[in-house]
């Protein structure tokens, strides 16, 4: 099985993979195409995912939840294999890749990297198996790009911690068993593993979205939520903790966006060849071929960048600014590929009978979550100039 659909693999990208990587990709694609693809347009239209807990368990059985982590029931696979997994999941829908990203690269990674041994043992094996769901609470209603201004607070009370505040736009929030919550304390920003069954914790699903509709998004509220000392992350202080987790998740976005782009490119190519106007296939017109060639070019460049960053991550040399390069470029170009594909399909491009408008709408969210275009631009600008222009 090629890295891409054969029709769009002009660059021979599949040759950059080894047999193990191809096997992982094949397994994820098979599951995604059989278990998710036939239903996801209906989920998107209805704004709900049927049996999300069951889907999480199936993904756990496949071994993709926290797959790049080691120990505690995690598969310990490579960054490249994780990237290919994100590619195949987002080729079906961004919301499904988000589910896996938040579970593995935000919630599980935070627990694995910063949690106490008791917390790791309690949650990670169940989360890897898909028997428990996690979410990651950083963004607040009034604090997105500047999380340092968060108003959620935690205070010591004897041997416990008491948390008050709210989080917004939290993927998996209303089905989660454990929430990673970041809060201001007298000791700086700290992280907590909060069981969602704790009194005072509530999660309400956010409705009326026109993007990521096949994804559960929630608002979290904490009213005097009391957790024991072992729930606090013992060592990490400040924004370094949550930002490290975000960099981990953004790496998956670099790959996932190219999955959405691949689906739209291959759909547009098939449509252009099959659709006739003025007595000939739409693909036979020069302007259409220019669109297809430009889409292919940007797709190949994005894939090469994703592969390069994955190899650096596997080698332990990947830097945060390099992840910003990938996230900024690949999501931006994937969105443009989807928009161009929409024009090739004409009026059919807005129908959910085809995947293009769904991917296009989804990528409008992916463009701004896990760091907006503006924020990643300034990260890259600082890396180039040495000057911090955030404030």
Would you kindly provide a written description of the structure presented here, covering whatever features stand out?
Belongs to the acyl-CoA dehydrogenase family. With 391 residues, this protein is of the alpha+beta class. It has 3 domains: 6-129, Orthogonal Bundle (Butyryl-Coa Dehydrogenase, subunit A, domain 1), CATH 1.10.540; 134-231, Butyryl-CoA Dehydrogenase, subunit A, domain 2, CATH 2.40.110.10; 240-385, Butyryl-CoA Dehydrogenase, subunit A, domain 3, CATH 1.20.140.10. The protein has helices spanning 19-46, 52-62, 79-92, 94-114, 117-129, 240-274, 286-315, 320-345, 356-366, 373-385; strands at residues 70-71, 74-75, 134-137, 153-157, 160-171, 178-185, 188-195, 201-205, 217-228, 276-277, 280-281. The strands form 4 sheets. It has a 4-stranded antiparallel β-sheet, with helices on one face. A 3-stranded mixed β-sheet has the order 3-6-7. A two-stranded antiparallel ribbon has the order 1-2.
CATH topology of the largest domain: Butyryl-CoA Dehydrogenase, subunit A, domain 3
Mean pLDDT, to the nearest integer, reads: 95
Strand percentage lies at 15-25%
The strand count comes to 11
Identify the overall geometry.
globular
Please report the number of helical segments: 10
- Helix proportion range: 40-55%
How many domain modules? 3
- Main beta sheet strand tally, sense and closure: 4 strands, antiparallel
User: Largest beta sheet: what is the strand line-up?
Assistant: 4-5-9-8
CATH architecture of the largest domain: Up-down Bundle
Structural class: alpha+beta
Low-confidence stretches: none
Q: Which superfamily, in CATH terms, is the homologous superfamily of the largest domain?
A: Butyryl-CoA Dehydrogenase, subunit A, domain 3
CATH class of the largest domain: Mainly Alpha
Question: Cα-atom Rg, whole angstroms?
Answer: 21 Å
**Secondary-structure element sequence?**
HHEEHHHEEEEEEEHEEHHHH
Distance between the termini: 48 Å
């Amino acid at each position: 099985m090629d890295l891409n659909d054969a029709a769009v693999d002009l660059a021979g990208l599949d040759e950059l993979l080894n047999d193990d990587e191809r096997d992982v990709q094949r397994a994820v694609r098979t599951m995604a195409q059989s278990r998710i693809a036939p239903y996801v347009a209906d989920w998107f239209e209805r704004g709900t995912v049927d049996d999300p807990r069951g889907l999480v368990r199936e993904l756990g059985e496949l071994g993709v939840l926290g797959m790049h982590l080691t120990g505690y029931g995690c598969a310990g696979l490579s960054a490249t294999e994780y990237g290919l997994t994100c590619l195949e999941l987002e080729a079906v829908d961004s919301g499904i890749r988000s589910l896996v990203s938040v579970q593995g690269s935000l919630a599980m990674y935070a627990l694995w990297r910063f949690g106490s041994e008791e917390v790791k043992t309690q949650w990670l094996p169940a989360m890897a198996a898909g028997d428990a769901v996690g979410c990651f609470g950083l963004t607040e209603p009034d604090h997105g790009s500047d999380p340092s201004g968060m108003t959620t607070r935690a205070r010591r009370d004897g041997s416990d911690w008491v948390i008050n505040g709210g989080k917004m736009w939290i993927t998996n929030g209303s089905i989660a068993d454990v929430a990673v919550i970041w809060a201001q304390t007298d000791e700086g920003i700290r992280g907590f593993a909060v069981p969602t069954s704790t009194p005072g914790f509530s999660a309400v699903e956010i409705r009326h979205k026109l993007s990521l509709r096949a994804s559960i998004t929630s608002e979290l509220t904490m009213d005097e939520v009391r957790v024991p000392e072992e729930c606090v992350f013992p060592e990490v202080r400040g924004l370094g903790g949550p930002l490290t987790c975000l960099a981990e998740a953004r790496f998956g976005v670099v790959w996932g966006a190219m999955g959405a782009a691949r689906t739209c490119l291959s759909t547009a190519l098939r449509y252009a060849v099959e659709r006739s106007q003025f007595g000939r296939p739409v693909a036979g017109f020069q302007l259409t071929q220019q669109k297809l060639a430009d889409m292919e070019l940007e797709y190949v460049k994005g894939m090469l960048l994703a592969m390069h960053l994955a190899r650096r991550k596997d080698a332990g040399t990947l830097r945060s600014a390099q992840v910003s390069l990938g996230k900024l470029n690949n999501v931006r170009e994937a969105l443009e590929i989807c928009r161009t594909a929409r024009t090739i399909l004409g009026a059919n491009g807005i129908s959910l009978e085809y995947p293009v408008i769904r991917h296009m709408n989804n990528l409008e969210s992916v463009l701004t979550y896990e760091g907006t275009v503006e924020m990643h631009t300034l990260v890259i600008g600082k890396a180039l100039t040495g000057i911090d222009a955030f404030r």
